[in-house]
């Protein structure tokens, strides 16, 4: 079986290019004309590669790297081995992200999976839909009446764009994604299998049965939002479900109706956010966190993995646990339990 290369470098930059793009500091006398062909991890990098060190856990691998150049924090500059140019950066991970984006532009957002240019004849585009020039529609995709899609946007195979949906420019809608009852800004990425705008989970509960409540709101995704594979964002029941600009949502996340998420939040995989909960800007929820409904999570709050959040969280605080409490309270609780455990005799005593 052959081994294909899925992402080929778009150029062969020099170290001078890296300095210009990122502001990294090269050592005196370094050959800035030196070129490299890819970005690789420390242990796999060869003489034609650029690598980086950001996490101290991988510091032992620095001594053995064979890379042409390595972006490192200042404290590791002296540990870069001979034959490798050490480039000092305050934030190496951000610096290498800038370089990799230039080197592999095709990896920045999903493109056509069929090599389509323009609208595939095997897609179904309603005659009342409006597509700006430069929209790409892959085979099998369906675009409904009065939908509007901006230039540079790619709609993947078998994706469905519902009636009256608005999608901005330079977006990507992945294979088999569904977007209905939604307004989508510019540069939004929706990965494969995403579900946007379906019914929120709304029922008037009662002993005689559960009466369905019509969900008449929308989903609003602002500019530069990214939504991971198989994530579901329900439309609002009587107001909009909103995701603020720059927010990044991982795979397999559930966002309920009427939820409002601020700008530049990070929502990690398998998080579930119940209806009408409000997250401020720059909130982080770690994997498998569960948030009850009608809560307010303050700006900059951080929620630990597998946490069960049942109360409002003030701005800037870190909470974790089941039920979730502030980090200070959780650490105090664990310390108390340890002290109590030492006092209780074991069954063997």
TrEMBL record:
Keyword terms: Acyltransferase, Lipid A biosynthesis, Lipid biosynthesis, Lipid metabolism, Repeat, Transferase
Active site per UniProt: 257 (proton acceptor)
The organism's place on the tree of life at top rank: Bacteria
Coiled coil location: none
Class of this enzyme: transferase
GO BP annotation list: lipid A biosynthetic process
InterPro entries for the chain: Hexapep, Hexapep_transf_CS, LpxD, Trimer_LpxA-like_sf, UDP_GlcNAc_AcTrfase_non-rep
GO molecular function, one term: N-acyltransferase activity
Domain UDP-3-O-[3-hydroxymyristoyl] glucosamine N-acyltransferase non-repeat region: residue ranges: 38-101
Gene Ontology cellular component annotations, sorted alphabetically: membrane
Transmembrane segments: none
Catalysed reactions, as listed in the record: a UDP-3-O-[(3R)-3-hydroxyacyl]-alpha-D-glucosamine + a (3R)-hydroxyacyl-[ACP] = a UDP-2-N,3-O-bis[(3R)-3-hydroxyacyl]-alpha-D-glucosamine + holo-[ACP] + H(+)
UniProt-recorded name of the protein: UDP-3-O-acylglucosamine N-acyltransferase
């Amino acid at each position: 079986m052959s081994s294909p290369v899925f992402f080929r470098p778009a150029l062969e930059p020099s170290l001078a290019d890296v300095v210009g793009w990122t502001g990294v500091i090269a050592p005196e006398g370094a050959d800035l004309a030196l070129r490299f062909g890819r970005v690789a991890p420390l242990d796999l990098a060869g003489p034609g590669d650029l690598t980086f060190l950001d996490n101290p856990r991988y510091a032992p691998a620095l001594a053995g790297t064979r890379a042409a150049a390595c972006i490192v924090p200042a404290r590791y500059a002296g540990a870069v081995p001979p034959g490798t140019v050490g480039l000092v950066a305050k934030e190496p991970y951000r610096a290498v992200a800038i370089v990799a984006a230039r080197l592999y532009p095709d990896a920045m957002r999903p493109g056509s999976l069929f090599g389509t240019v323009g609208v595939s004849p095997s897609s179904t585009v309603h005659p009342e839909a409006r597509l700006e020039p430069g929209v790409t529609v892959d085979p099998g995709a369906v675009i409904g009446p009065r939908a509007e899609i901006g230039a540079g946007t790619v709609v993947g195979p078998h994706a469905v764009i519902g009636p009256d949906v608005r999608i901005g420019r330079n977006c990507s809608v992945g294979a088999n994604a569904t977007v209905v009852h939604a307004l989508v800004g510019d540069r939004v990425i929706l990965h494969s299998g995403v579900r946007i705008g379906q019914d929120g989970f709304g029922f008037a509960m009662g002993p005689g049965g559960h009466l369905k409540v019509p969900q008449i709101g929308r989903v609003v995704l602002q500019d530069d939002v990214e939504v991971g594979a198989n994530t579901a964002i329900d439309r609002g029941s009587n107001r909009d479900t909103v995701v603020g600009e720059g927010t990044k949502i991982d795979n397999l996340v559930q966002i309920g109706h009427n939820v409002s998420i601020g700008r530049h939040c990070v929502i990690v995989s398998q998080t579930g956010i119940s209806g009408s909960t409000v997250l401020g800007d720059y909130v982080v929820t770690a994997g498998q966190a569960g948030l009850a409904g009608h809560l307010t999570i303050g700006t900059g709050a951080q929620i630990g993995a597998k946490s069960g959040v049942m109360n409002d969280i003030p701005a800037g605080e870190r909470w974790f646990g089941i039920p979730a409490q502030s980090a200070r309270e959780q650490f105090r609780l664990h310390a108390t339990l340890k002290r109590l455990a030492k006092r209780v005799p074991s069954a063997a005593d």
